[in-house]
Amino acid sequence: MKIVIIGGIAAGMSAAAKAKRLDPSTEIIVIEQEEYVSFGACGLPYYLGEEFSDENEMFARTPEQIERLGIRLLLKHKVQALDSEKKRVLVEDLATNERFYEKYDRLMLAVGASPLLPAIVGSDSKDVYTATKLSEINRFKQALPSYRKITIVGGGFIGLELADQLVKTGNEVHIIETKTELMNRTFDQEFSEKIAEAIQEKGVNLHLGESVVAIEQQGGRVHAIQTSKQRYETDAVLFAIGFAPNTGFLDGQLDCLENGAIRIDTYGRTSQKDIFAAGDCASIPHRLLGDVYLPLATTANKMGRIVGSISVVRR
């Protein structure tokens, strides 16, 4: 049996390793567009804040270690299309632009999600960042000594972690959040207020109930940010306002939520036979709320192990 896994960061590698342990005879191919696998992006805010200096601490395994397990890796390759009828995917080698088809008996989609950026004036500035890729954080770290004022847009998990770390660098740090409470999807009002108090006690400037409408530039550099209420001078902007699942290439072949997340059951099975999904590209079945979107590393790795177990069951 041949299992093809698209995505090798969190859920994909959890599934690959579990499947190989359970059935060493299964051929497993992992296709990943980055040059690395098994990366813990949750550590990026703390790497930025110098809690540790070696970026290798965010990698659970190297590509060489994965291949020694008998798992074949196609790094710097990207899947451009799915042909579910012929059970194959169209793969592009990002180094050579060569394209080829890879057939599968079972397919797992762990393609992740991309950080959202608003379509506003100035969002394309080189002083505007997101915080989910190592290359982006390294770019920010190199520029950090030239910044004095930093604005974080978004008051969720990532935004708060970034603020907590950046305020220690001596910069003036601001958080802009459209809602009137922090983390209100996760916590109740009382707990949300305590989070706001704690982050402000650390020296972070908090602006709730404001939406960013434009980013001003002078001489090609970010100079200020305009919200629905005020204007704030800033040298850099970090967006942490959510994610969009990387599922556009599916072209409607699978049942998805409105935001594009692939709908799965409790075993990671999709609406197509022999196709599984997990991680930030997929929904999570919730006993009370139904199918929800929770792009978290914990759910990604747990569901990845479930898919790895189910995908090798011969039936």
From TrEMBL:
Ranges of residues in domain FAD/NAD(P)-binding: 1-304
UniProt keyword annotations, A-Z: FAD, Flavoprotein, Oxidoreductase, Redox-active center
Protein name: FAD/NAD(P)-binding domain-containing protein
Source organism of the structure: Enterococcus durans
Cofactor (UniProt): FAD
InterPro entries associated with the record: FAD-bd_OxRdtase, FAD/NAD-bd_sf, FAD/NAD-binding_dom
Gene Ontology molecular-function annotations: oxidoreductase activity
PANTHER family hit by this protein: NAD(P)H SULFUR OXIDOREDUCTASE (COA-DEPENDENT), PYRIDINE NUCLEOTIDE-DISULFIDE OXIDOREDUCTASE DOMAIN-CONTAINING
Keyword Transmembrane helix found: no
Superkingdom to which the source organism belongs: Bacteria
